[in-house]
Structure prediction request, 299 residues.
Amino acid sequence: MTDSSRVTRRAGLRNAVAAAVALPLLTTAQASATRRPRPRPRLDVMTYNLRFASAVEPDSWAVRRPVMRALLRRRSPHVIGTQEGLYQQLLDIQADLAPHYEWIGTGREGGSGDESVALFYDTRRLAPLEHDTFWLSDTPRVIGSNTWGAALPRIATWVRFRDLADGGREFHVLNTHLDHASQYARARAAALVAERIAEFDPSLPCLVTGDFNAPAHRNEVYDILLGAGLTDTWDTAAGRSRPYATFHGYAPPTPDGDRIDWILASPGVEAYRASVDTFSLHGQYPSDHLPVRVSLTLG
Prediction:
């Protein structure tokens, strides 16, 4: 073999090795360029009028509590906007859910002896950063105030959360329960809620949960809140359950009835599945309302 042949052979081997090394590098670069972004984790949200704890049969809290426990353990939402919960009832629910649930809220008279609009959250997923409660009145900082003729003082509680599973993304949740008797009070309350939401950081997503005592699509309250830029996740969801009236009074649910419990969201929030949950055990319902659930991403 001539010297030139040996040189040519060595050069050929070097070129072959270089090509072999370059090929996987090129393939990795191409794969990296075409790799899709990791999908954002879904957040499961529920709004639920618990029906205050009462000893009146046949639907006392003692009877309903095991059914409520079964429902909440099966669904395990990351956030639950509750209405009507009494202090001891909220402690019961916290004990029944799991050790990793906490709640934030206060009574509508400013203490622990009356109904609240507490927000439960899964501490494995969410960390609260700040929160506040205000009264639905002309004097929202005055505890127990009621200036619009509502049958009872009404409140809203909001929390700014950090989503631990979504890169620390922050978002707001506001939860409320509007008056059952006065449409004027409901409309004024909706306008105040819209004003407060407008004060939140506009770069952060916002969710609004509640019992609005007003049918979706057929009440000024709904128009005010959607006019403030919120969307109805029931309507925007890619899929949904059969609709039911969300107040059923412990009777069998009514298909296609009024949906007075809503989960609203700021633009950019993407809803995947919305449902009205008809869960019961042996004919016993956990509450006189049905919970509404939605699985979403914050956008």
Notes: Residues 197 and 205 are 10 Å apart (CA to CA). Confidence is low (pLDDT under 50) at residues 1-29. The first helix runs from residue 3 to 34.
